[in-house]
Amino acid sequence: MNWSLALLTLLHLLVPIYWLGGDLGTFYSAGFMMDEKRPAGERLLALKIMNGIDMAPRTVLILTLPTGLSLAAAKGWLNIAPWALAGLWMFSLIWLALAWAVHLIHGPRGTLARGIDLKIRYAMIALLAGSGVAGLTGHLTMPFFIACKLLVLAACVTTGVIVRFQLVPLFPAIAAMKAQGATPQSDAAIRKVLGQTRPTVQCIWVLVLIACVLGLGTPV
């Protein structure tokens, strides 16, 4: 048995499991956050749970590319030099540490980390989309399904950035709830923001499922 190939396959399979599972947990917890009949303390606890669970999809999004390309190289679908894969893993782990810093660190340092993380996401969108298009047009040699998956991943990162901007008005409403409890104004803001993000998040679910179908159905 090829244990390294089995491990790579397992790691890549865990990506959609934790991605969709984490998103579903966050989606469900949001219902408690929006429930105006609950005390502010319970709703803030639901928010804390949401933020914690949401780090699962945030983590596996970053690990999608290194696990996927490592698996593709191991299966002979892509010709990638070992040093290039090592560099990709190093970059991905640094990006992952940065994403966790955004989650854990507040204040000026957190703002700096958030800005760097956002710039990386913009660069990754361009790189993934460009590579996917190059693969489809024959400018890069890769199987059709991998080119499509690169485009899907670019769309996932893009949609995640959209969600991030959609959530911006939520923060003042949360701060107001923490300071003075729930008010009609804060409730309306929370309801509006979470209502706007729901269809965007559901688009990510569809994209992840498309990537799964591409990986399972067309590995040629």
TrEMBL record:
Entry annotated with the keyword Membrane: yes
Protein species of origin: Novosphingobium sediminicola
Protein name: Copper resistance protein D domain-containing protein
Record field: transmembrane: 6-34, 55-74, 80-102, 122-138, 144-163, 200-218
UniProtKB keywords: Membrane, Transmembrane, Transmembrane helix
